[in-house]
Amino acid sequence: MLVGEKRRSDAGMKVVEYDGMKIRSPYIFVGLPDVGLVGSIAVSYMIDRVKMAEIGHVESDLLPPILLVRNGEVKNPIRLYSNASSMIALISEMPIHPSILQEFVGSIAEWFRRMDPRLVISITGVPVQNRLNIDRPKVFYISTDEQASSLMRSTQAMVFEEGIIFGAYAAILKACISRSIPTLTLFAQSHLNFPDPFASIEALDVLNKALNVGIDLNELREEAEMIRIRSRELMKQTESMLTEPRLKTAPTFYG
């Protein structure tokens, strides 16, 4: 453990905070590998554009022994970032296997609770069969916070009125509700098995309008094809889990 690190644990999972983190009542953005990698792409881009610094990571003996190397630095695959004022981002560069999902969600939800967030914002995709014929994917939302719902009504997003949600984002939503943590979950129409940065753009556009986060989306539009190529391997890993019945995380719409 590095000097100054603090460990918070739950059922074998540890949230490791780096020294000097004093953020309270932030917006927390969650991007996990899922349908179309919508959340992963959106939150990764947000981290870069807002110039967030790494403030911690999640570790556990339950996780596979994987480390990443970026620009010569060794990185944990599940990391926390912040802009040192009002925003925290949680991003994972590996799919969360269903066998460890409850431990993972329990750990991060407890950490969220200690941060006393203004709002936890999860971003994911909802697969549509005719995605190639959709120029601008629609964005749906579920909110457990009236203020967030009011802000969303000023955007083009639509209420997710009826259906079923499975998997990681459902588990996060459930864990936050049980801890009285205000949440907003965005679902952008997307491809199922291909990275979909254009769905991520629509989700971020909604956040720009609702929360005034001020993220310039031009670079994401220009680099969409390159992002698709870079994300193919993560999409393959995620797809293998999405095919498992209990990991189908997309919401199901009725009517």
Report what the structure shows:
The protein is an alpha/beta fold and 255 residues long. The protein has one domain: PAC-like subunit (Rossmann fold, 3-Layer(aba) Sandwich). It contains 8 helices and 14 strands. The strands form 3 sheets. The protein has a 10-stranded mixed sheet, sandwiched between helices. Helix 1 packs across helix 5 and helix 2 crosses helix 4. The chain starts with 5 loop residues before the first strand and ends with a strand. The N terminus is likely disordered.
Question: Keywords for this structure?
Answer:
single chain, 255 residues, alpha/beta, Rossmann fold, 10-stranded mixed sheet, two-stranded antiparallel sheet, 8 helices, 14 strands, globular
Compute the number of helices: 8
Topology-level CATH name: Rossmann fold
Strands across the major sheet, in which order? 1-2-4-7-8-3-9-13-10-11
CATH class: Alpha Beta
- The second-level CATH architecture is 3-Layer(aba) Sandwich
Shape: globular
Mean pLDDT: 86
Distance between the termini: 52 Å
Strand content: 25-35%
Structural class: alpha/beta
Order of helices and strands: EEEHEEEEEHEEHEEHEHHHHE
- What does the main sheet amount to? 10 strands, mixed
Question: How many separate structural domains?
Answer: 1
CATH superfamily: PAC-like subunit
Number of β-strand runs? 14
Share of helical residues: 25-40%
Unreliable stretches covering 5 or more consecutive residues = 1-5, 7-11, 245-250
Radius of gyration: 17 Å
